[in-house]
Amino acid sequence: MNQLDKKNLTILSDDASEIEVLWKDGKPLINQDDIKRILGWELKAEGLCKDNVCVPFSVSDDHVGSEFFDLLQLAETLGFSTVLDYESNFLAIDTFSALRASALSDKKAPDIKLPDIDGNVRFLSEWSDKKKLLVAFSSW
After folding, report:
1. What number of helices (H) and strands (E) belong to the chain?
2. Which residue, among 8, 12, 27, 9, has the nearest Cα to 96 in the 3D structure?
3. Which of 3, 36, 52, 113 is the most exposed place for a label (fewest CB within 10 A)?
4. Domain-located, residue 48
């Protein structure tokens, strides 16, 4: 597949979304406007930026146009793991992989937020310096 194909891609990252992407050589290319919505980072002249932190990013040699970028390359630059199923038009992006790695090396849990049994959003930091037990389960 050397030509550009336009298809919808379902992306699961922090949220689930469906966007139209260009496909080139089995890689999804996304519009620059979709980068922040999907990855939570903005593409600026300094690189990929979030708040006051920027990660250098250089465009690959096979870059298409000035507004479309290789989503897999963007995710890899940020240290995110990805799983792509081309036939199903589905991409999962693990935006927490870098956070997990630092938690393992620091031996400190990240300040995650989850709903409690009553549906109230709680932060792990609410129980700072206390032992905690997090129970996760699924019906499937």
Report:
1. 3, 11
2. 12
3. 52
4. yes
Better-predicted residue by pLDDT, 12 or 137: 12
| Number of domains comprising the chain | 1
| One-letter-per-residue 3-state SS of the chain | CCCCEEEEEEEECCCEEEEEEEEECCEEEEEHHHHHHHHCCEEECCEEEECCEEECCCCCCCCCCCCEEEHHHHHHHCCCEEEEECCCCEEEEECCHHHHHHHHHHCCCCCCEEECCCCCEEEHHHHCCCCCCCCCCCCC
Q: Report yes or no on whether pTM surpasses 0.70.
A: no
- Mean pLDDT, range 133-138, rounded to an integer: 75
Question: Would you say residue 13 lies in a domain?
Answer: yes
Q: For residues 25 and 125, what is the distance between their CA atoms, to the nearest angstrom?
A: 44
Neighbours of 11 (CB within 10 A): 25
Task: State pLDDT tens for residues 86-126.
Answer: 888 899 998 776 666 666 677 777 777 878 888 899 888 88
Q: 51 near 58, Cβ under 8 Å?
A: no
Average pLDDT over residues 72-84: 90
